[in-house]
Amino acid sequence: MPRRGLMGLSAAALIGLGSATAARAQTPRPPQGRKGQIVVGLSQEPTRFNPLMARIETDEAVHLNMFNALWYVAPNGDLVPDLATEVPSVQNGGLSGDGLSWRIKLKPGVQWHDGKPFTAEDVKFTLGLLRNKEFPAMSRSGHDLVRDITVVSPTELTWKMERFYAPYFSILSWMMIVPKHAFDGITDFRTAPFNSAPIGTGAFKWGERRPGDYIRVDANPNYHGTGPYVERVIFKYVPDLTVLKTQFIAGAVDAVVGTGITPDNFDEVRATRSVKLIISPTAYLTSVTLNNGQPQFREKEVRQALYMAMDKATINRDLFYDSNFATESYLPAENWAYKPDLPVHKYDVKGAMALLDKAGWKPGRGGIREKGGVRLSFSISTVTGSHLREQMQQFLQQSWLPLGVEMSIKNFPAAVMWGDFWRFSQFDSTIVGAIYPVAGDPDVSDRLGSWAIPAKAGSGANQMQYTSAEVDKLLPQAAAMLDRAERKKAYARVQELVRDDLPFLPLHQTNMGEGTKANLLGFEPNVNYRHNCWNMSAWYWAS
């Protein structure tokens, strides 16, 4: 924000967005009624269907189509009302001058998939779940500051914030609302029937699931928004990326989204006239993520040495075909707080050896370095069938061995990889693509705050178990700042600290290769979401 006061405060001003009234971009006019189905190929299997619980990106392909938030983020960054009638601001009376009192007005007439009315009680219940420490929430950031939630009427509620929290507008755009009545009498949220047969307000409702094969969602005839224009969507699980590409080209799959079409297959897809290749920037950082709680990685010098001895340029050029943006930051280059002048990686094996020597890591049995009874030996994991990442594992294994580092490869299917193994930091190291900001806001408290380590706190997304006293101090300070320029300075310092500490070894900001059949219209990339299934209510067949 250009000034320290809150006069004229709005969601758009707080997170650097434009108008909050933009409509969803549409391709040429869709047909009347609903026609056909869409088979969407996913290389990772959705397994978590409660949108408030810990989840991975591929789960959101289902969540974004079955549920709604109060507002969503358009591709250009605008906040657009969804279940709410407006995004609160000082001008429309939804926000107090100090940013602490909120008033939310809801759309009338919205129904849950089971026909029951959606009301302000459902919003209050959702906020209450996220504030309940017994609930296994994906995140409590911001929600733990909410106080005095009051239902004024079925279509209006108010609450107060304990303190001003700038990222909260963005966080709410990712908070899917769940029905209060679905949890009546439930004492164990982890085993609630809702978790396997969810009920939402979205464009599609739950159909069926065949584990290891597909999930079907059916059109919601009472959807409060525009569309949907197809009768059903089938999310087809195809774990091998080469097989997924082949099925797409052959016509068995209508669309490939998320981690789907790898750079080595771009040319083949481009040459197939029946399909479209769509390459778009994402907020994903691909990195070698280290479990900083493991004794091998607790010393900064070890992490720095591994980074120095990683031939990052060759990996990005030869394995990923120079299709991505090499980076040193966890923030995407499009983010307003991105710091472009962080130290650039230099490949220096001799320097890495010297760093380990100086830190006291000496060659031991088999030439593998040791210190204090700890061998510099660890495993690296990724999802089975991700062939470029598997090639990268082999490359790193060969690259680090002369350094005196022993690395084994231990891969799993997505459901196992991103289950408790990832969630509760049971890994040594991983190759992972992760989005750090929330809906474009640069607050990364859930990723980098020491209070957000799930293995210790039960919620959060700091699976790497990174701890830094200075980062812990800066993150809440930045989130409470009214002046955007001051926030930017604080986040620049966080980026500097993380680049020096190297809790993960950054590779690149990912440009995603996805695709649809040539006559499937409405697909629209959105860098503000973790999955480009965000607007499937607008997809339709041209003929």
Fill in the keyword field for this structure.
eleven-stranded mixed beta sheet, globular, alpha+beta, 21 strands, 16 helices
Compile the SSE list and pairings.
Layout: H1 11-14, E1 37-42, H2 60-66, E2 71-73, E3 79-81, E4 101-105, H3 120-131, E5 146-153, E6 156-161, H4 168-173, E7 204-210, E8 214-219, E9 232-237, H5 241-250, E10 255-256, H6 266-270, E11 275-290, H7 300-308, H8 312-319, E12 325-326, H9 349-358, E13 362-363, E14 369-371, E15 374-375, E16 377-381, H10 387-400, E17 406-409, H11 414-417, H12 420-423, E18 429-434, H13 445-448, H14 454-457, H15 469-479, H16 484-501, E19 504-517, E20 520-521, E21 540-541
Helix pairs in contact: 7-9, 15-16
Please tell me about this protein's structure.
It is a single chain. With about 550 residues, this protein is α+β, with helices and mostly antiparallel strands. The chain has 16 helices and 21 strands. Strand 2 (about 70-75) and strand 3 (about 80) form a beta hairpin. Helix 7 (about 300-310) packs antiparallel against helix 9 (about 350-360) and helix 15 packs antiparallel against helix 16.
Question: Would you report the number of β strands?
Answer: 21
Structural class label:
alpha+beta
Based on CA atoms alone, the radius of gyration comes out at 23 Å
Helical proportion, percent range? 10-25%
How many H/I helices?
16
How would the global form be characterised? Answer: globular
Question: Largest sheet, described in full?
Answer: 11 strands, mixed
Query: In whole angstroms, how far apart are the ends?
Result: 47 Å
Strand content: 15-25%
Oligomer: single chain
Mean pLDDT: 91
Which stretches are low in confidence, meaning pLDDT under 50 for 5 or more residues running?
Answer: 1-27
